[in-house]
Amino acid sequence: MKYASFFFAVLFLSVQGFAQEHPSVTAQPNTVYVGADGKYEAAPDTAQIQMSVSVQDDSPQAAYQRASKNVDQVRQVMRANGLDPKLATIGFYSVQPLYEWKPKQRVIGYRVTTDVTLKLKDFSKIGPITQQLAEANVSETQTLNYTLENMDEAKSHAVEDAYRRARNSAETLARASGRTLGDLSYASVDTFENPHIVMPRMRAMAAAAPAATPAPTEEFTPQNVTVTAHVNALFNLK
Questions:
Q1: Is 233 exposed, middle or buried, given 0-12, 13-18 or 19+ CB atoms closer than 10 A?
Q2: Claim to verify: residue 81 and residue 167 sit in the same structural domain
Q3: Residues 93, 73 share a domain
Q4: DSSP 8-state secondary structure symbol assigned to residue 178
Q5: What pLDDT, on a 0 to 100 scale, did the predictor assign at position 137?
Q6: Largest CA distance in the chain
């Protein structure tokens, strides 16, 4: 008896959905095309503190000196907590003239900005460092987020989970139709990561807070970092 050629197309969409478009595939007869989502969760191993330093003064030289002083205070806070300042990275310095437009355009000052990023492995130091930096008023904002240092490994686990789900679905369809699932003919992969941002802190808020107030992260456990993947797979049918 001859079997009619057929094609199954099943897409399993995640609850959250994805913004990226998946590639279209021209499926051949006697194939099954499935899509599935997978994920991998892991406790973060790295905390990243980002600070935006921005100062204004009458001359670019004065503004630069004040910005450099604020950055030096970051170094002092790090040394006071037993950290090598080399653990922090600094962005480029940006100098921007400030204008007054009425009654006519004229320069009234200069703003110097830069960013400092600090990565920590010892989470017990996060509270003291963020509190001391806030009290020193060295930056306009502080942002703390947790991430994984080896993100590629986490993505691999998420892809494995998505492929396992896709293959299970394809095998189910093959059995239901009285066929056997063959080799993988085609696959596409998308991965997505969501490092967890914990705490944006404004300098004005920090200045107004009582000295005895505990750091926002104190006694809490960082939320797991979740990496998700979507796999589209085309299998042959026997």
A1: buried
A2: no
A3: yes
A4: T
A5: 86
A6: 93
Q: What is the pLDDT along the chain (238 residues), one digit of tens a residue?
A: 333 333 333 333 333 343 445 556 666 889 999 999 999 999 899 999 999 999 999 999 999 999 999 999 999 999 999 999 999 999 888 999 999 988 888 999 999 999 999 999 999 999 899 889 888 888 878 898 888 888 999 999 999 999 999 999 999 999 999 999 999 999 999 998 775 555 444 443 344 444 455 555 555 677 888 999 999 999 999 9
Residue 200 falls inside a structural domain: no
- Total domain count for the chain? 2
Domain that holds residue 155: 7-42+151-193+228-237
The answer to whether position 219 is within a domain reads no
Structure tokens at 52: 């935006």
* Cross-strand partners of 190: 230
CB 236 within 8 A of CB 167: no
- Continuous segment of H or E residues that includes residue 174: helix 151-176
Q: Look up residue 28 and give its two tokens.
A: 């051949």
Q: Which two tokens stand for residue 47?
A: 């905390």
Sheet bearing 31-42, strands edge to edge:
7-11, 31-42, 225-237, 181-194
Task: Specify the CATH number for the domain of residue 50.
Answer: 3.30.70.2970
The verdict on residue 175 lying in a domain is: yes
CB burial readout 29-60, b (16+ within 10 A) else e: eebbbbbbbbebeeebebbbbbbebbbbbeeb
Shared-domain flag, residues 140 and 53? yes
pTM: 0.64
